[in-house]
Design goal:
single chain, 2 domains, 41% helix, five-stranded mixed β-barrel, alpha+beta, elongated
Length: 203
């Protein structure tokens, strides 16, 4: 009778461990998916207003300097023209792509940058209108002015000097806590056996 009871307890224990392992697997997948989705960064375009990235194919020399930032025209891999802001001290990171744009070197790697779209003020727009056709090839020059600015370019520039501001995700935190509780329970079931109580006898 005792052997059967012990066997049933062992089977039940193994069944519980399997259930916990299954729950842990599901929790891990859901947590990983939600975390990755919340950290997903979109490619910058004229409608983007969140932290985003660009893959640079060509890049102009700086056409303006504002405080410690330089403004550059770029072309992405889809041949769209955008404006980015970089720190003056970081210009060396982009020198090869700039040299390639002006045919100073034969080839170079594409450059991926991250930043936050910032609304272009009137001063920036005037500078863009003044210099953009000096960057564009003859066949791509545009009749841009203040009235039709948004027809040709986004109303923002991608400011690469601003780092991503990660918002705390409470759902991921709660899921992580639940995962931790089940993980500790699993450890207890596998490694810690219940200590049998010693029967006391009267002498």
């Amino acid at each position: 009778m005792k052997k059967r009871l012990k066997l049933k307890k062992k089977v039940l224990k193994k069944f519980i461990i399997l259930i916990i392992l299954l729950i842990l697997g599901i929790l891990f997948y859901i947590t990983y998916y939600i975390y990755n989705d919340s950290r997903k960064i979109e490619e910058y375009n004229k409608n983007t207003n969140t932290y985003s990235y660009l893959i640079i194919k060509e890049m102009s020399e700086a056409f303006a300097t504002i405080d410690s930032k330089e403004l550059h025209f770029i072309k992405d891999k889809k041949n769209n023209t955008y404006i980015i802001a970089i720190l003056k001290k970081d210009k060396n990171k982009y020198q090869k792509i700039i040299d390639y744009t002006y045919d100073k070197i034969d080839k170079t790697k594409l450059v991926k940058v991250y930043g936050l779209p910032i609304k272009s003020n009137d001063e920036i727009k005037r500078l863009v209108i003044k210099y953009i056709n000096k960057f564009l090839p003859l066949q791509e020059k545009i009749p841009i002015n203040e009235e039709n600015y948004n027809k040709y370019l986004p109303n923002t520039i991608l400011d690469t000097t601003i780092k991503e501001n990660y918002n705390f995700n409470y759902i991921v935190f709660i899921l992580f806590l639940i995962f931790g509780i089940f993980f500790l329970l699993l450890i207890k079931l596998i490694f810690f056996k219940k200590i049998p109580e010693k029967s006391s006898s009267l002498t």
